[in-house]
Write a structure and sequence with these properties.
Keywords: ATP-binding, Membrane, Nucleotide-binding, Transmembrane, Transmembrane helix
CATH architecture of the largest domain: Up-down Bundle
Main location: membrane
Largest sheet: 6 strands, mixed
InterPro entries: AAA+_ATPase, ABC1_TM_dom, ABC1_TM_sf, ABC_transporter-like_ATP-bd, ABC_transporter-like_CS, P-loop_NTPase, Type_1_exporter
CATH class of the largest domain: Mainly Alpha
Subcellular location: Membrane
Pfam families: ABC_membrane, ABC_tran
């Protein structure tokens, strides 16, 4: 901010040719004549000091930019990490309903982590710095302008009120628009993620045009919102530019008249005009700072929707019970999914599963079979009633510690990108090689893994060339669960993709765990080959009620049993 003053002083050292000739004659007649000085310094000292000042300024500018980038990157890294940690700690209610009351989808959460955090980082690092710089530059600029000419400063101050009012209104509008744009981007990311995950299905049904139309609809929403922001920004900056340009010309006209009156030198006017440009830029910078801050606040509101959403079912609270031995009891359970509050799943559900039993839940689709596993794993809490394991209410247990003692295998398991060994170790990080081998043998995975190019070190996942079949994925998933030596094993159609021979081997191994080690097995199945391996069959009707409970042989040999009717009506084989 000292540069305009120096430039003005340098300009004032300029002399006309006649003055130069007179000075030369004086120097010849009077060798002791002092040379021209700038701010009391000989020219060579002044320019040397000015060069040192510029070097210091360049170093300071480098430090400012580097530190700001460092602060911004650290901020966004920590914010993303904490956001991801917060999402992982959420329960099923968050994803079903969420703070938006419409559920939190993967694509929208990715948008918040990737895009919104970046906007907040920019607002709180470089934008804050630019705002502080604009304040300091404006204050120093006004002070120097008053020092040079208070009359011109008074004239220039007339432009500030309309600029401040316009910036305030523009900032409020831009905050709402910025949040709308980020929500549209989140919706587009959600659609993108969903469609790309189902690209084979889309191609199989030749629905590329329809999907492209749906995608373009989301793009048009973003385009429309962005164009509204562009019109608003164009209006704001064009008016600002008009006011600024008009003010500069007015100051120049008034300044030239002051020079004519002898109240101002040409150098002073040059300094003042440069300070006017700097100060005007600072005012515009403050307006931009305010609007960028409003964008950050709009993005922050979306971040805080997640950050301030506390799970109904906390992960780390509750007592830790190491030996959950005993019966599993569902007592007077009433439950409905939060995303379907009008649809009652269980009205008065009661069932007891003895320790070491091998139980299979069967029934038509939508009867509540899988809901039993969801409640037992405590993805949801019942609306009323209680669930106990070994006499302990699961609602009073530390959730992570409790789930570590359960094993859960889904019909369509998720395997992570990495080696087969890494996926198995996901179940128990510190497992030995013997435990890995044993788990793979129990799940009948060793046979096909030995044929793979790198055995258990073979890379799998969407980003690798080695793709496993549905049955192979189920077996690796089963090994990942069995390596934990769970006291309670929940199988939700866990062998549906296996061929009959593989299923027979797997079920035989599971029966060994059940009979020799007392592992309680809870199966949810539709295939008769899976059902017949269970000791006890619990039959549901369409209303989530238990209509039959007994041994497989007893129910199967009774032609009038509800179990046999279910087999006939649903062609279970």
């Amino acid at each position: 901010m000292s540069l305009p003053l120096f430039i003005g002083k340098i300009i004032d050292t300029a002399k006309t040719p006649s003055e130069d000739d007179t000075e030369v004659k004086q120097e010849v007649s009077d060798p002791d004549n002092e040379k021209v000085k700038i701010l009391g310094l000989p020219p060579y000292q002044f320019y040397t000091a000015l060069g040192v000042l510029f070097v210091i300024g360049a170093c300071a500018n480098f430090g400012r930019l580097y530190l700001l980038r460092s602060v911004g990157e650290r901020l966004v890294a920590r914010l993303r990490s904490r956001m991801f940690s917060k999402i992982l700690a959420q329960d099923a209610y968050f994803f079903d309903i969420g703070p938006t009351k419409t559920g939190m989808k993967t694509g929208d959460l990715i948008s918040r982590i990737a895009s919104d955090t970046q906007i907040i980082s920019k607002s709180l690092s470089s934008n804050i710095s630019d705002g502080m710089r604009a304040v300091i530059s404006g204050f120093v600029g006004l002070s120097m302008m008053c020092f040079v000419s208070w009359k011109l400063t008074l004239c220039m101050s007339l432009m500030f009120p309309p600029l401040i009012v316009m910036s305030w209104f523009y900032g409020r509008k831009i905050k709402a628009l910025s949040k709308l744009i980020q929500e549209n981007i989140g919706a587009m990311t959600k659609v993108t993620e969903e469609k790309l995950n189902g690209v084979k299905t889309i191609q199989a049904f030749s629905q590329q045009s329809l999907m492209l139309h749906n995608y373009n609809t989301e793009i048009k929403k973003i385009f429309s919102s962005s164009m509204r922001e562009a019109k608003l920004a164009g209006f704001f900056y064009s008016i600002n530019g008009f006011i600024g340009n008009t003010s500069m010309i007015a100051l120049l006209v008034i300044g030239t008249k002051l020079i004519g009156y002898g109240e101002l030198s040409i150098g002073d006017l040059s300094s003042f005009m440069m300070y006017a440009v700097y100060t005007g830029s600072s005012v515009f910078g403050l307006g931009n700072f305010y609007t960028e801050l409003m964008k950050g606040i709009g993005a922050a509101e979306r971040i805080f929707e997640v950050a301030e959403s506390n799970p109904r079912i906390p992960n780390q609270l509750g007592s830790k019970i190491d030996n959950l031995n005993g019966d599993i009891v569902f007592k007077d359970i009433q439950f409905r999914y939060p995303s379907r509050p009008d649809s009652v799943v269980f009205k008065n559900f009661n069932v007891t599963i003895k320790q070491g039993e091998n139980v299979c839940f069967v029934g038509p689709s939508g009867s509540g079979k899988s809901t039993v596993s969801q409640l037992l794993l405590r993805f949801y809490d019942p609306d009323s009633g209680e669930i106990t394991v070994g006499g302990h209410k699961i609602s009073s247990l530390n959730l992570n510690h409790y789930r570590n003692q359960l094993g859960y295998v889904q019909q369509e398991p998720l395997l992570f990108s990495g080696s087969i060994k890494e996926n198995v170790l996901f179940g128990k990080e510190n497992a030995s090689e013997e435990q890995i081998t044993h788990a793979l043998e129990l799940s009948n995975s060793s046979h096909f893994i030995d044929k793979l190019p790198d055995g258990v070190e073979t890379l799998i996942g969407s980003s690798n060339s080695t793709q496993l079949s549905g049955g192979q994925r189920q077996r690796v998933s089963l090994a990942r669960t069995l390596i934990r030596d769970p006291k309670i094993l929940i199988l939700d159609e866990a062998t549906a993709a296996l061929d009959s021979i593989s299923e027979e081997i797997v079920m035989k191994n599971l029966m060994t765990l059940n009979r020799e080690y007392g592992t309680t097995i809870i199966s949810i199945a539709h295939r008769l080959s899976t059902i017949r391996n269970s000791d006890r069959i619990i039959v549901f009707n369409n209303h989530g009620e238990i209509i039959e409970d007994g041994a497989f042989d007893d129910l199967y040999n009774d032609p009038d049993s509800a179990f046999n009717k279910l087999l006939q009506n649903h062609n279970l084989e």
